[in-house]
Write a structure and sequence with these properties.
The protein has ten helices and 27 strands. The chain has 459 residues and is of the alpha+beta class. Helix 3 packs antiparallel against helix 4. The longest helix is centred in the middle third of the chain and has 14 residues. It starts with a strand and ends in an 11-residue tail after the last helix. One of its GO terms (cellular component) is cytoplasm. Keywords: ATP-binding, Ligase, Magnesium, Manganese, Metal-binding, Nucleotide-binding, Protein biosynthesis, Ribonucleoprotein, Ribosomal protein. In the C-terminal section; belongs to the RimK family.
Length: 459
């Protein structure tokens, strides 16, 4: 390592923290280095604790905030120059100056009242560094302009994230989300949606859980069951109010779960689907059926999931009987055209961030027109057409879903969207296709929470 001479102030970089330019005061009277940090919060397991914090690298610019995370090394009592003792978290990171890099330990503290965002103490000043206390910035200059550069996003290091999975079930999908996230160094916490409660106000909205305020999460992955859709979406809406990135938003989940609303959304976007009719209490059952076509017909409860509440009426008389039975139960239902050429098969396309990442063909059990895997259906990988791919992407985009399972029927006049699922199961499609879909979802989350360049202020 070459010899370096520091003045009393130098430009430095902390690349592991995503801080490409920061001014540091060199203080040989201080033993430990310190970094200005706000919103300091620990997370992770007791055996591998981590700390997350925000840094405002430019004095006076609180609108420019970089969220950092690092393994926690220690917690120490540090006495400042004014004699006050403070307990601080200690991290280890890489310091870069003049093209040279070396590891240093840094304590985290609020330096809002100080001009320098960082202080370099004796421990960070290796033997190859000499100090010229009457001069400043003897090493190459950097610039705060980097925080306005679009390359900041692509060059930012991957940091440990704190992620919440909203789920009440310990199933394959939830387990995979935890397993893959933790393998990438993130902390993934499973939160029972029904045990969340909310403080709703204009200043500091919060989400509480089991008697405590939930911490700040980098991202929330909703796995909301159909039975708790309204309350689950209220919880997601609260996270959205706080500013947390939610893979699927509350509006998209609500509209996709309501089958009537979902079909209206698809129709408005001119996305192909089976001809559908709905009425609250029509006097003439034959009229409702005529809007769809001739038998066989599908009669489907609006609240149906996993193939439950879906009936194939082979004849007009059978359709009338089913409709009358549903009416007698005061149930809301749709009547749909039966796509005969689909022959009990459908295509499940898994869409992540506007791209089809996997597709499988599902075939119903013998004698069953429903292809749901939960009802004994089978699945295998399938190659989809360009039109099917575009239809699946458009359907997911219509509901603004970051993760969606789009079910298509292959009809004689092109693909028809049967359903858009906002909490698609991952087990069937990962096993059928052999693809790491969970990993692809984390790719999107990691890219989404990277720092973004900040617009320059107008002078």
């Amino acid at each position: 390592m070459k010899e370096l001479t520091f003045g009393w102030e130098e430009w430095v970089a902390l690349p592991d923290l995503g801080l490409p330019a920061i001014k540091a005061k060199v203080d040989t009277g201080a033993r430990t280095s310190a970094l200005h940090a706000n919103d300091i919060e620990t997370f992770g397991s007791a055996s591998k604790p981590k700390v997350r914090f925000n840094v405002h690298p430019i004095p006076g610019r609180r609108d420019i905030s970089i969220t950092c995370s690092a393994p926690l090394v220690d917690r120490r009592e540090v006495t400042s120059s004014n004699g006050e003792a403070e307990s601080r978290y200690v991290i280890s990171t890489t310091l870069e100056v003049g093209g040279e890099t070396w590891p240093i330990e840094v304590t985290l503290t609020n330096r809002d009242g100080l001009t320098s965002r960082m202080l370099l103490g004796r421990q960070a000043l290796s033997d190859h560094i000499s100090i010229s206390p009457t001069e400043k910035r003897l090493q190459p200059d950097l610039s705060y302009d980097v925080y306005h550069d679009t390359r900041l996003r692509s060059q930012a290091p991957q940091r440990a994230l704190r992620i919440a999975v909203l789920s009440r079930e310990a199933n394959y999908s939830t387990g995979r989300l935890v397993e893959v996230g933790e393998a990438r160094g993130h902390t993934v916490e499973v939160i029972d949606t029904t045990r969340c409660y909310m403080a709703i106000n204009t200043i500091a909205p919060e989400v509480h859980y089991d008697g405590k305020r939930l911490p700040r999460y980098d991202a929330v992955i909703p796995r909301i069951g159909a039975s708790i859709t309204p309350y689950g979406c209220a919880v997601i809406r609260q996270f959205e109010t706080i500013g947390t990135y939610c893979v699927n938003g509350s509006d998209g989940i609500l509209s996709s779960r309501d089958k009537l609303h979902a079909h209206q959304v698809l129709a408005a976007k001119r996305i192909g689907m089976p001809t559908t009719a709905f009425a609250a209490s029509p006097k003439d059952t034959s009229n409702l059926m005529a809007l769809v076509g001739t038998a066989p017909l599908i009669v489907k409860l609006l609240e149906s999931t996993q193939g439950k509440g879906v009936v194939l009426a082979e004849t007009k008389k059978a359709a009338e009987s089913v409709i009358d039975a549903f009416r007698g139960l005061k149930a809301n239902f749709l009547v749909q055209d039966f796509v005969k050429e689909a022959a009990g098969e459908d295509i499940r396309c898994l869409v992540v961030a506007g791209k089809v990442v996997a597709a499988m063909k599902r075939t119903g059990a013998e004698g069953d027109f429903r292809s749901n895997l939960h009802r004994g259906g089978s699945a295998k990988v399938v190659r989809i057409t360009r039109e099917e791919r575009e239809t699946a992407v458009r359907a997911a985009r219509a509901f603004n879903l970051g993760l969606a399972g789009v079910d298509l029927l292959r009809s004689s006049d092109g693909p028809k969207v049967l359903e858009v699922n906002s909490s698609p199961g991952l087990e069937g499609i990962e096993k059928a296709t052999g693809k790491d879909i969970t990993g692809k979802l984390y790719d999107v989350i990691e890219a989404r929470v990277k720092p973004q360049p900040v617009r320059r202020r107008r002078k």
